[in-house]
Amino acid sequence: MFALFAWQPAGKLIWADNLLSPVKNEAFGIGAKIEDNSSSDTRDRVIREVAPPSHSALDYVVCEIDDDPEQVNAFGIYHPADLAITLHNLKEQGAKRVFLSTHLHWPAHEPEENSTLATAMRGFESVVVTAPLRRTLSSEPLPPAFMLASIPASEVVGGSEFFPIVNSLSIPPCIDFPQNTFAGFNVLESEKPSESLPMLARWNDRIVFSSVLLGLMQNSKITPDQLLVQAGEYIRIGNSGNIIPIDLFGHFHPDLSFAAKSPPRTITSALSAEASIIGATQRNAILTATGNRTSKFEAIGDPYFKLSQLAYTPRVSGAETLSRLPSWLECILTADIAILAAWLLAYGHMRRNTAFLISLIAIWLIFLTLYHILHYWSPVSVYTLTLLAGWALSAILAKPARRALT
């Protein structure tokens, strides 16, 4: 029976253990308790409570690329070298994470010019960029920055067969992105426009994400492999971030009456080195194009609003740890139950079955107490199967005895 402990973590009996669990991972209603995602070898379970959306302003500095009326830029209104200078200025002011919401498409420029922006991007903890995706007759390989920001389709709980399908970029960036860069999409050109917002799409056997979702991921300081997707239910931003409800097609239906608060700080790209922003505390920055001439380079309209809209979703709060019983104690309990089952073999038919039933109920009551009051857990399915095996064995052994009496 001890071999059941090796079988149980593989998920074969998880359904039985979930019947007693104080958490319900399939629910994300306000006040529900959900469990952290963790490696299968951990013995502790961390439980968090789902909290209502918070309407607090996201702590960003929004850097607007205007038409440069003061003619500060060295190369024009929208050039990779000028953007590189802007990123350098933001880094000097303390920004550690940047969300670039513009098209990074300069096919007419020399590679050396485009590489200046890539060099500036390397100085940040992480950078989120965006590009439109579409579905065409011929599939292209998934670009490295999109690959870095994707997860295997096999990791989607509930399957990804209803998600939008894409296989190419329509406005590909002209930059070799550094390894700290996560690429997402701003629009799925093959999809019909709607009030709902696509959060993900399937590119061959990978799931790629909306760049706004990646921006929220970046704000939570997690990586794509910490995203949990359950089709038709939610996208969970790590263990302590937002829980974004989605439909079967991977769309988020925002509250159309939502009104975002103003960003804590707004500056212009051309004046990003000015002393007026010395002392800024924001560690997250958004680069957006808002000028009459530069707005044509904008890939995401009002990215701060869209981030705030996505952040106005339930999130988890607090943390409660359930510790697993020591291995030696689990083995002793299993042995005790096996001995109990053997002892009950000597009882008569009616008395034996009644004793097995009472023992089964007692096991479940004991572990309910462990879960909800003492904050301990152990795979109850192992003990249940040990007792049921003894019960079944007693029934099998009793048949020859009854036949002998008749």
Automatic annotation (TrEMBL):
TM stretches of this protein: 325-347, 354-374, 380-398
Name the UniProt record assigns to this protein: CHASE2 domain-containing protein
Key words of the record: Membrane, Transmembrane, Transmembrane helix
Organism: Rubritalea profundi
Domain of life of the organism encoding this protein: Bacteria
